[in-house]
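thought: fold this chain, then report.
action: predict
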Amino acid sequence: MNILSKDQVYLVIKSLNTPLKEENYEFIYDVYSQTVEGISELNDSNVFAKINGINNFDIISYICGEYIYITRNFNKEQIEKFNSDENSATTIASFVADKYLSFSMFNYHEKKITNKYLPPVSTLNLYYNFILNVLNNYQQKDPSTTLVIDLLVKSISISRCVLNLLVDGYFTEAFATWRTLHECECTIILLNKYGGSLIDTYLKHMKYAIAYKDGIANKEEQDQIFVQIKKEMADHGLKSKDMKKYIEYGWLYDLKEFNDLPNGKLNFKDGLEVVSGLDAYGTSYNISSEIVHATPLMLYANNSNLYISTLILIYESFFRLEKIFIDFIVPRVNKNSLDVYLKMRKLYYSYLVRIYNSEKSKLNKKN
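observation:
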């Protein structure tokens, strides 16, 4: 096995940028030596299949993680006492050897359908990464001015999470997570389309939600908020039992489209989803909800169908979110930066469309 020298171990520790002080490096090296020795003995005993090499970086990372966690609340004297106790190094070495061998040789993997290198995954992930890096250059987490960008960043992040779950073979989990993406997308579509006063109303209802969860420190202010909520509810003919749904969806009253709905309700299915124009996804949303609520579908769904269906859903979501992204960046970037993005878009957007059409044809054949 490729065993490192003390100097090499010290270099690896430094490269990890941990809070460890150099006076603790000797202890880490001692643990490393015992860990490697233990793995070597197991290798020689034929308990496991032959280990041809070890990942020293992983082993040292495990050791540092164990040591930092165990000593996180120790003072200097306690750390010195811990380091001088020979049982300390032996115990950590045993933990690390077990974890390393478990995850390197016997790590459980879900059955996979795709991998991160195939174009349907890698191309979309490339675009996600590009968008997130661009958006990272702009102010975030200030709801009064950055609500749309915050929702856009969160939507792209959730999309990426869904894609990674598909790659790792967690198909029901990916489809269940798409449900959250769908809800975010319905909201951002409306806020991006109408902006201004609708965003103000949405933020007002966010404050209502905080008050409803007893999150306002000033109780007098919180009481005043409830007085305002009840007045607005009365104006819309709502009763006390409707308070929660008014807080969550009452901002939709600002939209003529909602007020004109013959069967509009203050909920997602009959309100937000319809007004945002994404009610065609209602069936998928309902199925996803069944998975979330632990029905038999969660256990016995066809993974192949779930994979391709979820992939199509996040591709379609991407095409819509990318348009919102363009709306956001065009007035905010200089010409050179915009030209760079448009060149990238010309190359990869059309490729994503071709991939989407190809994958969609597979779904149509299954159905």
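thought: worth noting. The chain has 17 helices and no strands.
final: tokens above.
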